[in-house]
């Protein structure tokens, strides 16, 4: 058979596609076979998803989720399309063991240039969860290389989420979180209390003492502290003062513990700063990036570290970081990522995020008066309606769709993380949809 043998296959009828999907395709956080039929997306452009069939009277929905917070430039962007096309012409993939290539080198240099000063080495991974695995492995191996193998636990604060693979699950909140099922099997880590809420709130000195004391009490067994700075994402979409990130940096320095900042959800402008660490003015020992890294085009993540960490590992008994995914440094993903970060930096991303923030603040003003809504919070291009009950996802999704918007509420909240390029009218629609979803869900 030649390469073109499948090129002329006719598209599946929507009913057939959904039947095959239900029987064979396992969706995120879903049962198998599937129970609720997903919406079939035919194409996507700008900030709109085009559906194969009408849903709640709509064939097009404004994407209020940036495809799980990654598609910051929207869809089908000519600059990113061209970067992908150009790279396909030379090579889509080549192994990274013993070989290198321009897209990966360019991307690594760009990431070093824009992340907090002192992060100089870049490990390119497949996904956000894998970058957290790599970050943890870096920290554990660093201390083992220093002859301090007892430092092998991790500390975090409650309310966090770091991914669905093994070590990341161990530092997600073990109570009420989606990984509670594994609480007797996962490594037992050290948990501080959740940070007090409010990005602009005055720091709670008692909580700062609690953080410092927790780090100090466990310092001899702690390899690292790992947290999401300023915004806790999938654990509850909560915001906290950057002062607590600074307090952790100081405590880690005082007690000789490494600090890992998980910026998979917050990186590349989402909170109003290029990186959430910039709000705190700190450099972590390791930083994890993902999601928006490729503008939502391809899966790619990175773990960046300081020379101290890299040198510590390289001088150890095993002088290599023994990790190497098959698709590490994938040229296609790296080329698109470099183009996506370039697109962000060449535009006025800060003004765009401020505009989205203002649109969310205006559109959600007074929503706390709605039945069932207990609070409203907005930071950067993130808007959240806190509910006093578990959201009815199906009802809330339908309510949003009737307003022409795709939202996916979870747990006890309706939230939006729209692409930065979302226009003012579409932002207003997103806010109206959030209100409707909160009222009906």
UniProtKB/TrEMBL annotation:
Q: Which residues carry this modification: N6-(pyridoxal phosphate)lysine?
A: 291
Specify which residues bind pyridoxal 5'-phosphate according to the UniProt entry for this protein: 128-129, 262, 325-326
**Pathway it acts in?**
Cofactor biosynthesis; biotin biosynthesis; 7,8-diaminononanoate from 8-amino-7-oxononanoate (SAM route): step 1/1
Name the principal localization, coarsely classed: cytoplasm
Cofactor(s) recorded for this entry are: pyridoxal 5'-phosphate
The record's annotation in Gene3D superfamilies points to: Aspartate Aminotransferase, domain 1 (3.90.1150.10), Type I PLP-dependent aspartate aminotransferase-like (Major domain) (3.40.640.10)
Catalytic activity reported: (8S)-8-amino-7-oxononanoate + S-adenosyl-L-methionine = S-adenosyl-4-methylsulfanyl-2-oxobutanoate + (7R,8S)-7,8-diammoniononanoate
Record-annotated residues binding substrate? 68, 161, 291, 324, 408
Its Gene Ontology biological processes? biotin biosynthetic process
State the family named in the UniProt similarity comment for this chain. Answer: Belongs to the class-III pyridoxal-phosphate-dependent aminotransferase family. BioA subfamily.
Q: How does it assemble?
A: Homodimer.
Q: What is this protein called?
A: Adenosylmethionine-8-amino-7-oxononanoate aminotransferase
Protein species of origin:
Streptomyces abyssalis
């Amino acid at each position: 058979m030649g390469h073109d043998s499948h090129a002329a296959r006719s598209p599946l009828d929507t009913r057939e596609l959904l039947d095959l999907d239900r029987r064979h395709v396992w969706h995120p956080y879903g049962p198998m076979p599937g129970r609720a039929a997903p919406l079939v997306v035919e194409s996507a452009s700008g900030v709109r998803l085009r559906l194969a069939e009408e849903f709640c009277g709509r064939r097009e929905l404004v994407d209020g989720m940036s495809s799980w917070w990654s598609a910051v430039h929207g869809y089908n962007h000519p600059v990113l399309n061209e970067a992908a096309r150009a790279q396909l012409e030379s090579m889509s993939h080549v192994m990274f063991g013993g070989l290198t290539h321009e897209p990966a080198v360019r991307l690594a240099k760009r990431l070093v240039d824009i992340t907090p000063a002192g992060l100089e080495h870049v490990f390119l991974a497949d996904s956000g969860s894998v970058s957290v695995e790599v970050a943890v492995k870096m920290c554990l191996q660093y201390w083992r290389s220093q002859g301090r193998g007892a430092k092998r636990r991790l500390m975090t604060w409650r309310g966090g989420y770091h991914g669905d693979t093994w070590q990341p699950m161990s530092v997600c909140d073990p109570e009420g979180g989606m990984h509670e099922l594994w609480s007797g099997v996962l490594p037992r880590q050290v948990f501080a209390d959740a940070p007090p809420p409010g990005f602009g709130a005055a720091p709670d000195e008692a909580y700062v003492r609690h953080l410092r004391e927790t780090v100090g009490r466990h310092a001899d067994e702690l390899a690292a502290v790992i947290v999401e700075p300023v915004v806790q994402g999938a654990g509850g979409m909560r915001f906290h003062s950057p002062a607590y990130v600074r307090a952790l940096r100081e405590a880690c320095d005082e007690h000789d513990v490494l600090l890992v900042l998980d910026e998979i959800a917050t990186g590349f402008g989402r909170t109003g700063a290029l990186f959430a660490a910039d709000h705190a003015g700190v450099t972590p020992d390791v930083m994890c990036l993902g999601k928006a890294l490729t503008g939502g085009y391809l899966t790619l993540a990175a773990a960046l570290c300081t020379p101290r960490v890299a040198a510590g590992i390289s001088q150890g008994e095993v002088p290599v970081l023994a990790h190497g995914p098959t698709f590490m440094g994938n040229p296609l993903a790296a080329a698109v990522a470099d183009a996506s970060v370039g697109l962000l930096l060449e535009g006025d991303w800060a003004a765009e995020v401020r505009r989205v923030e203002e649109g969310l603040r205006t559109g959600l003003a007074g929503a706390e008066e709605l039945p069932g809504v207990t609070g409203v919070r907005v930071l950067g291009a993130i808007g959240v309606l806190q509910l006093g009950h578990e959201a009815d996802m199906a009802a809330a999704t339908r309510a949003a769709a009737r307003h022409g918007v795709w939202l996916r509420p979870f747990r006890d909240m309706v939230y939006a993380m729209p692409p930065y390029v979302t226009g003012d009218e579409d932002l207003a629609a997103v806010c109206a949809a959030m209100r409707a979803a909160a009222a009906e869900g």
